Amino acid sequence: MKFGGTSMAGSERIRRVANIVRRQQAAGHEVAVVVSAMAGETDRLVGFCREANPLYDPAEYDVVVASGEQVTSGLLALTLQSLGCKARSWLGWQLPIHTDDAHAKARIEGIDSEALLASMAAGEIAVIPGFQGLSDAGRVTTLGRGGSDTSAVAVAAGIGADRCDIYTDVDGVYTTDPRIVAKARKLKYVTYEEMLELASVGSKVLQTRSVSLAMKEGVRVQVLSSFIDDDATPADEIPGTLIVSDEELEGLDMERQLITGIAADKNEAKIILTRVPDRPGAVATIFGPLAQANINVDMIIQNVGRDKGETDVTFTVPSADLLRAQTLLEAQKEAIGYNRIITDGKVAKISVVGVGMKSHAGVAATMFRALADRGINIQAISTSEIKVSVLIDEDETELAVRVLHTAYEMDADEAA
Ligand code: ASP
Ligand code: MG
Question: Does the CB atom of residue 145 touch ligand 1 within 6 A?
């Protein structure tokens, strides 16, 4: 079981979480619980780091931000104990949860689960802070924002859990953000592939890495609400959205729609380098240093060179990395040989996702037409087998999502 920040925000909510956990144990399960920091806490801690040093050392950032989950894991263990349950917390370094040393975005390399399994077998509820791990160098690491989801899936895989229930402030995965589109529908099932695309394009329900890990390890994940009362449908009856493999889904869901979901991501920033020399190796000199600095580049557009032997290169990076990327590229100006660097943090990426588009034409055309009809300008496009994404002005995000939800006939009242 994993509980997100909203579910852990304050003593009263932690008590409700403890009750949900206790019921699951009473239903005959051995339970491991992974928790997030209280809602807003990680942002607050990140703020302190930025104030201390805008170009902060990620290793020290990890020391600061990992503390949020330490607090909630201890508090949940205490609360469970107050309800008469046996409970014990296990910090990332105590298990340990091994990660690489990419501070602030570390990858889990393995979990020593013996201690956990022994504790659970002895009837204790194991409480594990999400987000944190231990590098080979013996330093605290964190897994990147939203990393507790990945911790939960990793723990589930490590102990061979039947299911990983991710309790959050929504009752499942929706066709799009219900706060933007009132007629969004809850999905009963989503494939790993679709969820991966939805997660990676900013549907903030799950961290992307948690989904790829679940896919790799075959962990069945359910997203469900923690804001439930005692007579709510038991988790074992799958009241939320179940994330499963393509094969399992085929047997489960007969009425697949063409498009499964629409996601928006405002955490992207656009960088344009003008007049880059159009010769072999030019883009390698741009993206090499970014890769070395662990900056993920997403959409990339390079125009065909014009007669001058120059071309513009446009790409996106996470907003949080914009300043670092810009600093790096400015330092490389001579080596790359570009003319100007133009950045824009006020962009959003809108994506439509669905395994159905593998076998259907016209999905992109519908998207471009619908956006054009509302005068929304497309700044960049990228596609995969099951996704079409466009980059637009951030101010038009909500409008674009609504327009597309209607264009693909996904609105709740139109559903079969
Ligand atoms: N507390 C961390 C964050 O806010 C990790 C998590 O909650 O998943 O990003
Ligand atoms: Mg989260």
Answer: yes
In a domain, 281, yes or no: yes
Mean pLDDT by 10 residues, the chain (416 residues): 97 97 96 98 98 96 98 98 98 97 97 95 97 98 97 97 94 90 92 88 81 96 93 94 88 76 93 93 93 93 80 95 97 95 96 89 94 97 93 97 95 65
Q: Does the residue 103 lie in any domain? A: yes
Position 257 in a domain: no
Degrees, nearest 5: CA angle 222-227-230:
95
Atom of ligand 1 at shortest range from CA of 149: 8
Query: Which is it for strands 32-35 and 108-111: parallel, antiparallel or unpaired?
Result: unpaired
Summarised one tens digit per residue, pLDDT across range 25-62 is 999 999 999 999 999 999 999 999 999 999 999 999 99
Q: Are residues 245 and 266 in the same domain?
A: no
Same domain membership, residue 410 and residue 332: yes
For residue range 236-292, what is the model confidence (pLDDT) as tens digits?
999 999 999 988 887 776 667 789 999 999 999 999 999 999 988 989 999 999 999
Inter-residue contact 371 to 402 (CB < 8 Å): no
Q: What is the DSSP string of 188-225?
A: SEEEHHHHHHHHHTT-TTS-HHHHHHHHHHT--EEEEE
Residues 245 and 387 in one domain: no
Ligand 2 center from residue 266 Cα (angstroms) = 16
* Residue ranges making up the domain that contains 401: 262-415
Among the bound ligands, name the one nearest to the CA of residue 73.
Answer: 1
| Any ligand 1 atom below 6 A from CB of 129 | no
**pTM, two decimal places:** 0.81
Do 241 and 346 share a domain, yes or no?
A: no
Whether 133 lines ligand 1, by a CB cut-off of 6 Å, is no
Q: What's the DSSP call for residue 186?
A: B
